[in-house]
Amino acid sequence: MTSMTKRVLAMLTVSLMACTATSALAQSKKTIAVSIPAATHGWTGGVVYHAEQAAKEIKAAFPNIDVVVKTSPSATAQVSALEDLSAGRNLDALVILPFTSEELTGPVAQVKAGGAFIAVVDRGLTDPTIQDLYVAGDNIAVGANTAKWLAEKLGKKGKIVVLRGIPTVIDDERIKGFTDVIKGTDIKILDIQYANWNQDQAFTLMQDYLAKYPQIDAVWANDDDMLLGVLEAIKQSGRTEIKYALGGNGMKDVIELVKAKNPVTPISTPYPPSMIKSAIYMTAAQLSGQAPMRGNFKLDAPLITPENADQFYFPDSPF
Amino acid sequence: MTSATTHIAIIKAPRRIRWAAMGPFIALAVVMLAGMVLNSNFATGTNMANVVTRSAFIAIIAVGATFVISSRCLDLSVGSMMAFVTGIMILTMNRLEPSIGANAIFVGAVVGILVGATCGLLNGLIVTVGKIEPFIATLGTMGIFRALITWMSDGGSIPMARALREPYRPVYFGDVLGIPIPVAITLIVALVGAFILYRTKYGRRCMAVGSNADVARFSGISVTKVRTIAFVIQGLCVAIAAICYIPRLGAATPTTGQLWELQVITAVVIGGTLLRGGKARIWGTVAGALILEMIANLMVLSNMVSEYLVAAVQGVIIILAMLAHRFIK
To answer: How far A254 CA lies from chain B's nearest CA (Å)?
Structure first.
């Protein structure tokens, strides 16, 4: 054996050893990738905030778990982000809030094929067998619980107007939950129109409702962002017959109204962006402690009242 | 040359030209008439005041867009720019409020005007000095401004300090001699715009550049300068709209001003300004903004249209208005 061959062999051994060392290290340290939409409006802003908080807390609590958060501005960008995340490293788990169900189903299935634990949040995939864990809020309950409270307060009679969001499943479910409950009462829904979960459009639409209907007993905007526009329009009109103006989602500005026992907005219902945090924590529990987390986890939408508002209040969150 | 053209125009078709110029106002009258027939609440003082005041933002921005479009450019960034200027203004006012109180509003407004003008200048320079198609250049800055406001607000909202809400509120909700302040500001902006466009050398150069940039260049007009100034005027108008906008909801969010650029361009074109440049109608633009807002208002007031079809009906009305305009000509 020449010295040359010896040296090559030695080098090979060293590099082999190095390889095993790194892979051993990688095995002991587990990676959770979190893929979420970029902050383009209040609710997704909250998702990003809570995902980053959860990443920090999990990394501090479990030194053997690494959490990588990646935000994407569109469905196609999210598909690319998934490829990037799984190409660079071996993923042990993926927590994803998919932009759209159809486009993301295939790419998530591929990550799953690599052996990762899949947690899907909020919007389901078209093939539910891909997910190990599904965490979501209850949009039907958001509408229904608000409607029940309102019906009781109005004595099951009166005239109300409704503002709905962007035509999506989320919006349809909230409206369905609400109208199904109202149907069983003598309350008349004067009008339902889209305001696209936008404060400005809600302000405009509410002005028009006020011009159109001389008597409105209550307003329901199916999102708190819109509620802020509604409140401003009511304030400007000087109309005093409107007993309640309610929203939904648990935006911090509205929780502040609830905490202050505002007579017009005394409650809200949560559809919390912090559900991403639930999913990240549960995934970490699965990876670190092998606590069984496979299944569906549906968050309730209990009424937020002045008494429990503190539990739903995140002053540092953008939402 | 100029006098000869005018002469021929006067002899040939004095009436036809007047009719074409009247188009947007006739359309406005038709929409209003339809409104009165469809719903008795339409013509009430409150509703009219609401609608006219609401249309102020689009109208003010559209006056600026009339300059940009008549010089044969296009600005797609106005909606995002508006959100960005709003955000900067609120942040400035909130920072200054503890030390100088309500005066922070004035400083904020000045800062807003400066930022708006700078944004416009940036757009203008990219288009003229950078020689990039205005469509692409402002598509780029549209994304930039939108991302900046999203970043500044962490995707949430930038609320104005509570102490400033009451002193600032009248700028949107108040009135002078019965005219809502945003409407008064719109009138002033349109008057100044009309003066610059129809009565100054700059206005004529703007048209010349819009009808034929090469001919304008050969006649010694600096096309670069004319177009850059048009973008700066646009930026100023955006800032003025932002000043009126903030007191309405007291916050800037990533969805502020979303898709306004399309409404602005629609208002300008309905008003009779040519998208290919060379002809501008400031008052037509204002009428265009009013028509858009009134159609939207009517959609809610009348019960005839399903909530799912509102946008389609609005689209059809706009196309019909444009077709009618064409046939009147």
So the answer is: 13
Which residue range is the domain that position A193 belongs to? 139-259
- A224 and A281, same domain (yes or no): no
Residue B151 has a CB neighbour count (10 Å cut-off) of 12
Query: A68: part of which helix (H) or strand (E)?
Result: strand A65-72
Does A255 map to a domain?
yes
pLDDT tens, chain B, 329 aa long = 444 444 444 444 444 556 667 888 888 998 899 889 888 888 888 899 999 999 999 999 999 999 999 999 999 999 999 999 999 999 999 999 889 988 899 999 999 999 999 999 999 999 999 999 999 999 999 999 999 998 898 877 888 888 898 899 899 988 888 899 999 999 999 999 999 999 999 999 999 999 999 999 999 999 999 999 999 999 999 999 999 999 998 889 888 998 899 999 999 998 988 888 888 999 999 999 999 999 888 888 887 777 788 788 888 888 887 787 777 66
Residue A53 placed within a domain: yes
Residue B46 to residue A42, Cβ atoms within 8 A: no
Name the closest residue on chain B to residue A44, using Cα atoms.
B155
Together in a domain, A80 and A166: no
CA–CA separation, B57 and A204 (whole Å): 13
Q: What is the CATH number of the domain that holds A185?
A: 3.40.50.2300
Do A46 and A75 lie in one domain? The reply is: yes
Give me the number of domains chain A comprises.
2
Name the one residue in this structure whose structure tokens are 């400035």: B92
Residues of A in contact with B256 (CB under 8 A): 200
What pTM was estimated for this model as a whole? 0.79
Cross-chain residue pair B154–A45, CB shorter than 8 Å: yes
Q: Do A211 and B301 touch (CB under 8 A)?
A: yes
ipTM over 0.90 threshold: no
Residues in B touching A236 (Cβ below 8 Å): 173
How do the domains of chain B map onto residue ranges?
55-279
In terms of domains, do A255 and A144 share one? yes
A60 and A144 housed in the same domain = no
Q: Which chain B residues have a beta carbon less than 8 Å from that of A316? A: none
Gap between the Cα atoms of B204 and B70, Å rounded:
10
Half-sphere CA count of A60, side-chain side, radius 13 A:
6
